[in-house]
Amino acid sequence: MIGAYLLWDSPKPGPDRAHAFAAALRIGLTTPACHSVNGALLCDGAAPAQTTLPRLADGTAVLFTGFIANRPALRAELGAAPASDAALYAAARTAWGDRADTRVLGEYAAILIPPHGGALHIVRSPIIAPMLHIWQDADRCIVASTPNAIFATGEVARVLDDDKLADGLFLNYCDERRGWFKGVTRLPRGTRARITRDRMDEETWYRLDEIAPLRLNSDAEYVEAADALFAEATHAVLDGFDTPLVSLSGGYDSQAVAAYAMRCRPDAPLLSATSVPQAGWRPPARSRAWVDERPHVNALAELYPQLRPHWVDGAGRDFSHHLRDMFDKAMAPPRNVGNMHWVHDIRQLAQREGADVVLTGAMGNLTFSYDGTGYLPDLFRSGHWLRLARELWLGGPRGAAGKRAFRQALLPVLPPALQKSLMAWRDGPFEDPLQTWSPLRADYAHESGVLKRAAEQGFDPFFRPISSVRDYRTKMLGNAVNEAGDIQGAMEQVHDMPMRDPTRHRPFLEFCFAIPPRQYLNDGVKRWLAKRLLAGKVPDMVLNETRRGQQAADWAARIRPARAALLDELDMLAGDPDVADRIDTARLRRQLEALPEQDDAITNADTMAFLALSRGLVSARFIGYLKGRNDI
To answer: What value does the CA radius of gyration of the chain take, rounded to a whole number of Å?
Structure first.
């Protein structure tokens, strides 16, 4: 947690602001020191009180938050061994200037204050990074990794941005610069900026679409290279930790992370935690989803005796679990609260078992286990007819090849309006988001510009087919991922537990983006790279699994005991104009009353209604939190 406060017309912001500013950046129980350096108040919430801030050779002071993942390589190149990541980053900046950010790997944000004041320099790493929130006016500039520090000064009003809240209730998070409060902006990932009294000049220093294509000599070489980079990524994220715990499912991604972690440390045990349904829950009668991942985890444990599996069922918990803590730390409503109970429980289990880091594989679907989505429209568009015909012919039952050609190759390249018409003709009318998964009132969605902004920003509420490989990657790394800096940071603070993901290690991700899409979809085999890479490393039952997993499938059993209280809450919210003018509380109430009493009677429509209910109530509670409600 870092922050800088600069008064344009004064070399000394003064001690009166320091205590409140520093307290908002606190990590743990001790309020950190607030330094007056180069005409600004600077604070690093993680630094011991007596720590001096790192500086560049010219005297520029450096604030750094996050982590560096290639410490040994940087130390060898620099010929120095700084003790902290902040000092290592300062040494890299001294040696290479702005080019340091292309050589420093990790997930970080930094604030730099030159010795003569008058400007702030800020930077965020690409892919995932801690957030930097910015307030700037004619008198001051405040930059911090939490908006709490901005408001703690008492000089900036905390006013919720109505458009941001409405867009979030429509799942449109495309505008990365837009924060949750009026006047407070955010620096995009892979961007640096120089802020003066009159302006903020941004430079995007990293673009994923500029990754150069990579062609190797044989299919086997791609697997060998991916294997070496996955091992490198695993070593990198484990650097500095002794007792990792992996958030483990039965899917390719987390199983791969666990397998590589155990191969990197063959003599060390590995803790794991897996979310499972509550005891006594029964899946819907017609469900084809895969919801209990214990057999797949146990199969991995048979391959690796050092694996120590644990199960979390979140008994009695729902989306309310730790919600106020998340508001306190993130100053934002979490997006996918239906999974929050087990995410929190895994962190709590990690603490109880003495783990010092939680490993995930959240970006596996975008990297090594990508299934080739968007490849067929690219083949169609580029006229590679033989390759396209082969993929369509081998991609499923022969009798359905024509249907696959229409849905997977032709439909995605058509204009959106024609796509929608053809899909409605074949499958029936599209479900209205404002009657299914979004809790927004339809009149408010139209009047507030939600639909217009979604169209202008390229957000598709109907989730039509992906049109290209680039389209898939852009969507996967945009929208909700734009909020990850705040939410991940809050999760780590709530549980005092860092999180690392080797599947988003930059060299590994770049390799996965650079190689031909045929390495992922070949002769109708999806996830071809992952299948070859993981053969012998994870159980065959994992590699051969064809069902789709469903997280928190027992959601109805979790909210049924609280239904009366939730209905009372909706009645109360219907009388709050700040909520009722935005959220369709009457619709949410009807849907909650209609919730089936038996778990095996739950339908997809019920699940969509739950998504609307949970999103609506969490946003309503966030509004109440900002107004001082104490019952959250």
So the answer is: 25
